[in-house]
Structure formats: C-alpha cells, structure tokens
Specification:
Layout (H helix, E strand, L loop, with lengths): L6 E9 L9 H10 L2 E8 L8 H12 L1 E7 L4 H29 L8 H14 L4 E9 L8 H16 L5 E8 L8 E4 L8 H5 L10 H31 L1
Parallel strand pairs: 1-2, 1-4, 2-3, 4-5
Antiparallel strand pairs: 5-6
Helix pairs in contact: 1-2, 1-7, 3-4, 3-5
InterPro entries: VWF_A, vWFA_dom_sf
Pfam families: VWA, VWA_2
Protein name: Ca-activated chloride channel family protein
Length: 244
C-alpha cells in the first residue's frame, strides 16, 4: 500500500439526542458507506440516561455507515473522538491487508501463525500513523447541548493538537447542526481553511433548536466529495507540469 495515495475518509457524528427533523440519518449513513466514507457516532450521555431511543439511533447510524459507536460523558469527549479515529484507521488498514492476504495466500490475519500475525499487526499500527486522513466532525448544537458546548469546543481543539503529532496529513472540516435561522447546518471550518481561524469560529457557535442529523450528514458527504474532486484536479495539474 502507498501512503501517498491512501486516504481514509471518516465522519464523526457527535450528538446528545435523537434526530427529530430532516429525514432518516441511518439511510444517509448507508449512502456514505457506499461511497467509502466511514460514519462513526459518539453519543454524549448523562450518568443516568433514562431514554434509550437516542442511544439506539447512534448505534444504527454507525452500523449503517460501516463505522463504530461509543457513548461518553461530555468531559471525556476528546478521548472518545481520539479513540474512534484510531479504531477507524486501524480497521480500514487491517481490512485492506486481509483482502490482499486472501488474494495472495488464501488466508487472513486470524488464520496466520502468531509470530507472522504479530509482525503484520505491528506494521498496521505503524502505518496507521502515516496514512492520509480526511475527517469531518458533525457537532450537534441543538438546544440540549447548551450546557455542554463549552466542553465540546475544547475537545475539538484538543483533537486538532493530537492530529498535529501524526506523521500523515489530516484534513479536517467541522459542521454544526442546526445552523442559523431555519438552516439545518452551518459549515464552521472547511478542509482547506486556515486552521488558525478554527478556535475563533468555534466560539461563534450558538446552541439552538432541533437535531437535523440527516441533512448535516448529507452535506458532509457532498463536502468530502467536492474536496476529493478538487484534490484530484490539483494532482492532475501537478502531473501535467512535471511531464512538461
């Protein structure tokens, strides 16, 4: 595998409640998965969570999106976002390795002798720090997040600091949902925006209204596709210049 070409695309949905307007987020997550975009979910829960419906949707969205889900208290959000990102990268690389092994020797990692398996797992762990990653965070900013949004802001900034330590490039976008007025979402930070502006934009986020998870997810998919197209065009231009 060539880490210069490999790009792992993931969406992380962070929410404390169930979608209640704008369509079915599970169906949208399924479409994302078909386009090789992994959808992970993080449910922010109180210590005493009485209503199980939001928790069920969080699980269903992740399963439809080929991703993983976790529940966390708001104070542990940063560590949880870091955890699902690590799991996504490692699982994606491991799946690719298993596919290649199956084609070459007719077995996967689980079938291999412990020594050989250990060496490959070490390679996967090392390579996971080098692969390019596109990460779009969908942050629930509905009314129920009012007392949690400050901690959520700090968690995103902490995650960005973690990304800086990776060998591989991380392109990050942030979408808040709902948006302003009657808008379902608002783009806070695009993939090619200056990262230095992220902190000030985070503090412009206001909590309000409903939880339109499906429209925000659909927009995130389109945003990632547009960014990929732009990246492909830039690579093509570089190749043309190199050829002369």
């Amino acid at each position: 595998m060539d880490n210069k070409e490999a790009v792992i695309k993931q969406i992380i949905v962070v929410t404390d409640g169930q979608s209640n307007v704008g369509g079915d987020p599970i169906a949208v997550a399924r479409e994302a998965n078909k386009k090789n975009i992994i959808v992970n979910t993080i449910g922010i829960v109180d210590e005493k969570q009485a209503d199980e419906k939001p928790l069920t949707e969080i699980q269903d969205i992740a399963e439809a999106g080929g991703g993983t889900y976790e529940y966390t208290c708001i104070d542990d959000l940063y560590q949880t976002m870091q955890s699902v990102t690590y799991k996504t990268v490692n699982k994606t690389i491991q799946d690719a390795v298993n596919k290649q092994l199956k084609e070459i020797i007719g077995e996967n990692l689980d079938d291999m002798a412990p020594v050989s398996r250990s060496k490959l797992l070490q390679y996967i762990d090392s390579y996971s720090d080098e692969v390019v990653m596109q990460c779009c965070i969908l942050m629930d900013t509905s009314g129920s997040m009012a007392k949690k949004i400050q901690s959520a802001r700090h968690s995103i900034l902490d995650l960005m600091d973690t990304f800086k330590a990776r060998k591989g490039r991380v392109d990050m976008a942030l979408i808040a949902y709902p948006g302003e007025g009657r808008e379902y979402f608002k783009l806070i930070h695009n993939f090619n925006d200056n990262i230095e502006t992220l902190e000030s934009r985070l503090y412009d986020i206001k909590t309000r209204g409903t939880t339109p998870t499906a429209p925000a997810l659909d927009y995130a998919i389109k945003l990632m596709e547009e960014y990929q197209e732009m990246s492909n065009e830039e690579e093509a231009l570089k190749l043309e210049d190199a050829i002369g």
